[in-house]
Amino acid sequence: MELDDLKNDWESATTQHRLTTKVIDQMIQKKYASKIKKIKYPELIGGIICLLGLGFVVFNFNKLDTVFLQAIGVLTMLLLIIQPAISFLSLKQFNTTDDLSKPYAEIIKQFAIQKLRFQKYQQVNAFLCYLLLVTIIILLPKLFYGKDISYNKSFWIFAFSFGYIFLLFFSKWVKKFYNNSLNQAEELLKEVEQ
Amino acid sequence: MEKKEIFVKAIKENEKLIYKVASFYTDCKDDRDDLIQEIIYSLWKSFETFKHNSSLSTWMYRVAMNVSIFHLKKNKKKVATIPIELENLNFAEIAVDDFEEKLKILQNHIKDLNLFDKGILMLYLESKSHEEIAEIVGITKTNVGTKLSRIKEKLRQQVSK
Asked: Nearest residue of A to residue B44 by CA position?
């Protein structure tokens, strides 16, 4: 289909509207403003899980009786704080727009830059996720059964191997997902800057 | 006239513009209605900053299109919204079937275009001159011509695929 055909179709397409004063008035009320706030469910759930995990490690920290396990415990706690923080911060900056009456190209540029930054934050978070998985595997037997990771070697060899295979596929998927998304944002930025 | 009255009058006079922008950037009734509400709310929020440096419709196009970019991003993340209860607000039901049908055909053609090209194409379809497109988008008039030729080429390639 040619561009002019599309234009003819678009022009001939008729619409009927019924924006009454009452409806417009309702839309611009402050009450509406507070209702329209979007809830970031995945981030919220992730944040709550991390906080619960953090509480669990803090509460059971006394069970970690070697310097190595204590160091892993501290690292786990840090990861459980840093990860949701990164997630919330990256979302916050992604949702910021200063002036919506700016030219479209400027906002697109801002959008693409924010998107690139957001994806990079998410990549860092994905890496921290792997690290968290390893530290949790080391801590769990001690925290749940009071036993060192070396106690049931065969189980943990299996757990590590399974975890490694999972991570291998997961990291490949993450890389592919973020690369596609990053490429799109980079292309968009290039297009605007041309 | 009070500020709100002027605003309501402006919205009523330009509701077709808002409806068409929202239709262009969304692909289902719920998203479209949601976007229309966001556009009107954003227009109201920035109404005070409207300095008459550009025409009212140029300003409205800018705000509506810019809001749509961020609305798209939210929808891609499949974030749930809290519905608001507005009486008699059911745009899809009062839209003429013919429009819905043509909109589907159009969306099928433009789905592979990037956001920047989409914006330029929408303004072209709205019969805006190269000069007006340049003002809304913030690029030169020559650039508008070049971009439109490229979009034309992209659409042609899509059809031949």
From this structure: A28
